[in-house]
Design goal:
This is CPBP family intramembrane metalloprotease. The structure is a single chain. The protein is mainly alpha-helical and about 150 residues long. The chain has one domain. About 75% of the residues lie in helices and about 0% in strands. It is built from seven helices and no strands. Helix 3 packs antiparallel against helix 6. The longest helix has 27 residues. The protein is globular, with a radius of gyration of 15 Å. The termini are far apart.
Amino acid sequence: MPWLEVLGLSFATLLAGTAILYVTYPERLFAMLRSGMLPLIWVFYPILSALPQELIFRPLFFHRYASLLPSGQGAIAINAAIFSFAHLMYWSSVVAVMTFVGGWIFARAYLRHGFPAAWMLHAVAGNILFTVGMGAYFYTGNVVRPF
């Protein structure tokens, strides 16, 4: 497990999430701490959200489409773009950018360290984002038709 990467991503996610919410929705900053839902999210998000996403976007994607993908950074960029595209249902540029960056990090970790590392990074980043209050951007109640 690349513990230094996990620590670095945790710190970067905490800073980015805090800064984004401070500017966009300061009233939501750390609101999840007061809701009482955080322990449930920390237990179930890694299993019910991060795990299935990582199974689809890393091993399934990289093994199924290996013959079509460029090598190295090109494959990672395509994977990150598709991961971000899958999150467009939230109709948020913040979500699109964050999932592209996260997708890049998770894909890179998968290729360098294997599936458990990608899953761990995804789970930790997601739990930190929910702790900060960024879940407001990823909550399915935010999915609305833009037209």
